[in-house]
Amino acid sequence: MKIAGSGLKKIAGLAGPFVGLILVITIFSLMPEVSDRFLNLANIKSVATQSVIVALCALGMTLIIVSGGIDLSAASNLALSCVLVAYAINLGVPPLLAALVGVAAGGTIGFLNGFLITRLRLVPFIVTLGMMGIARGLAKWVARNQKIDAPLSWLNELMVRTPKPSWLLVSPGIWLMVLFSLVMAVLLRKTVFGRHAFAVGSNELTARLCGVRTDRVKVSVYTISGLLCGLAGVMEFSRLTVGDPTVAMGLELDIIAAVVIGGGSLSGGEGSILGTLVGVFIMAFLRNGCTMMGWPNYFQEIIIGAIIIAAVTLDRLRHRQE
Amino acid sequence: MPEQPLLSLTGISKSFGPNLVLDAVDFELKAGEVQAILGENGAGKSTLIKILSGAYKPDRGRMFISGVEYRPSGPLDGRRQGIAVIYQELNLAPHLTVEENIMLGQEESRLGLVDRKKNLEKIKKVLEFLCHPEISPTIPVRKLSVGARQVVEIARALASQARILVMDEPTSSLSQEDTRRLFEIIRKLRAEGVGIIYISHFLEEVLEIADRFTVLRDGKVVGQGQIKETSVEELIQLMIGRRISELFPRLPHQPGEVILSCSGIKSARMNRPVDLELRRGEILGVAGLVGAGRTEFLRALFGLDRLETGLVVVSGRRFRPYFTSVSIGCGLGMLSEDRQVEGLAVRMNLADNLTLSRLKPYVSSGFLNGRKQKLAASSWIEKINIKARSPEQKVWTLSGGNQQKVALARLLHQEAEVFLLDEPTRGIDVMSKAQIYELMGRLAADNKAVIFVSSYLPELLGVADRIAVFHRGQLVEVRPAASWTEASLMRAAITGREGDPVISGERP
To answer: Where are the domains of chain B?
Structure first.
């Protein structure tokens, strides 16, 4: 009885975002104008592919938000990585190495975020706000303020809708998203590090009292998140086939929104990978559906804005009942 | 002709849940009088102030200002009706200027625009009256010294035409010079007919500045009188009273070899380095007033506050406290005085809170076994009698006593050898208190060691083997508990001079 109760509560905890996702999908599949195109496999594949980049960043952002932080530099970090990959390929670096350069650059920016937050004792909002500008500026500098064209390589096949070895079924990017979601979910729920991240976000003073090296946890959290943003940058390059320093402007807010819609709390200590993925897909299906309907861009923006507010309100209400 | 008192309280009672904090308190303050309210921590002084200010409503009883019934709807209303409270932690907006702070909420204005000239005139007059014309109205308050900030607070009260001024521990963070100047101001205000309620632990200051006194104990008025006719001794006797001795279960235990020794421990928040030794099977009580440096000592010892000097040896392992993980690894365990803010992550569940300081037993090849963790938590819930539905219950839903047991269970679970307990019985019910006393005794009997900080003297005397006293940021004295009495502890805590065990039995 007890166990069933707690299990039910867990399901109820995720129900909010899931209901939202199902609602969005149901509404569009009932629209006569798009019903036949919306729910077919090709469209779902394309939505999933479009979600890869936001999802990768949102996985890291979930970790950061769980630990009580925020990262405004995520999208700039992604752009820097994207530009560096193109730059490296142009220099004749093998594609795999170029991709690693992008990921490492992301990790470095993330590490710097964590280092500055813990050393200077500044709030994450300020440090990452600064880093948002720095990373974006670096990206533009490297690219000399224009797009970097790069010769095509196998890197550009990571995000195609019909993958080369057809037994993959979906693009390698989607597989990467699935793989890292699993890794992050396990990291968050099944390791001491994950538990420490929750503890730091829930009450940093308590964590310190219990011997958690809070600074080390924070630096790791930002570094991991940075690595994922770097990987997202590689995916962005793969999709665009160029290094564009102005890519993903303002995407950090979409990323944060996905985490929050999925049940993450900006005051820390709460959030889940599954919830975040649902949040990502709610936004992706909504964009996709609106575009298919031919609704203007501003309409999507209004709906997504309303959903963010509604999601957090519902979350509050659920907590009050607990 | 009997003059009308400026303020009078009759039969004021207040309880929080089952705790009766104020019990039919009668009190009178005349115009042009300084009256001290005295009492131990928890005697009900702060509650009385909050009722006066309007922050709390009394359950029973009435209040009158100059014969007119005073029933404030809130602190703002209380202030409007002439009662200004100057709290221990000053309530100024640090970024605003002296002028803005003084006039906040009572700005002179014309057509919605602040009339600065009029404001400045008013402030200049007030500051001159307070003998502090050198305080510039245009500088931000954060640039002022603590003493000057207090003057600004008083100026604010005066600018609002307060007739009754309540000062809560006004000298606790003042230098001697600032204290002297504050007393001049108080005398001047008294001459102007302002009634002043003065709350302080420093009895010698009270003897110097107050005209009359009221002593509270356990929420009751136990003594009132003229300051001229009393002495420090009598006031102490009144404050501690003759309590029915409570039952402190004592398990037999014998001090063994030294388990902890600290030398020259000092953080920035302590005044002098502390040297101390603790034996296995020993309970060391730590007494002192709030803010005397007891908590700061424990925090420094545990590595929560950065050390300036000092070394700690626990069971032969020598280290300089910095990482709490190292302290815990060496066998120290700390219970924070503030459960809600620091001690527990109240939004996390019981199992996580209980096991956070030692997750190792539940890890195999890198993965945390949540089931095992919950099972372990369940067994602790049973072992120390925590009233909870399941290990997954969120900690904030537990009662105070049960929360404290979770925090204590954490130390037991991490297999601490030396328990640093900061006010472990604060704010919990009597049953849980008795269980915590018993637990301490059992720890000592098991050859562990306990440092037990408390503001409640009977429990220190009842539970501890030795008692150390802190005063104004330094350790004054350590002696076997049997050679202390409540009176001598109180005296040492208040005056910082070593208590003399001989006078203990005397009656004034």
So the answer is: 1-82+194-240, 258-345+415-505
